[in-house]
Amino acid sequence: MSAYLVIDIDITNPDNFKEYEDRIFSIVNHFGGYPIVQDDNTTVMEGDWKPKRLVILKFPSKQNIEAFFNSEMYEPLKKIRRANTVGKAIAAEGL
C-alpha cells in the first residue's frame, strides 16, 4: 500500500540548506519515493495551519519511508536539515 511522508518545513537558513535541496531527491528515489507536492504558498481552507513549505513524498510503503528516514545515506542530510530548518513530518498510509 502506498504511503506518504508529509512535511511542514520552515527553512531558517536558505544558503546552508541548498546542499540538502540539491541531494535529497536522489536519496528519496533510492528508497522508491518521489515528490508529489512542494508548495511555498498553500491556501488555508480551515483552521490555522499555515505551512511555510509543504512537501509530500510518495513511497511504496511506510516501511520504505522508515528505511529512508533511518538510513545511513540520509543521516548527513538529516543533520543539515535539522541545523537549517524547523519542521514537522508524519508518515501516513494511502487508501
The CATH topology label is Alpha-Beta Plaits
Mean pLDDT: 97
CATH class bucket:
Alpha Beta
**Series of H and E elements:** EHEEHHE
Strand order of the largest sheet: 2-3-1-4
Helices and strands in order, then pairings?
Layout: E1 3-11, H1 14-30, E2 34-39, E3 53-59, H2 62-69, H3 75-84, E4 85-93
Antiparallel strand pairs: 1-3, 1-4, 2-3
Notable characteristics:
95 residues; alpha+beta; Alpha-Beta Plaits; four-stranded antiparallel β-sheet; 4 strands; globular
Descriptive account of the structure:
With 95 residues, this protein is of the alpha+beta class. The chain has a single domain (3-93), classed as Alpha-Beta Plaits (2-Layer Sandwich), CATH 3.30.70. Helices cover 37% and strands 33% of the residues. The protein is built from three helices and four strands, in the order βαββααβ. A four-stranded antiparallel β-sheet has the order 2-3-1-4. α1 (14-30) packs antiparallel against α3. It is globular and about 30 Å long. The chain starts with a strand and ends with a strand.
Gist of the model:
The protein has helices at residues 14-30, 62-69, 75-84, and strands spanning 3-11, 34-39, 53-59, 85-93. It has 95 residues and is α+β, with helices and mostly antiparallel strands.
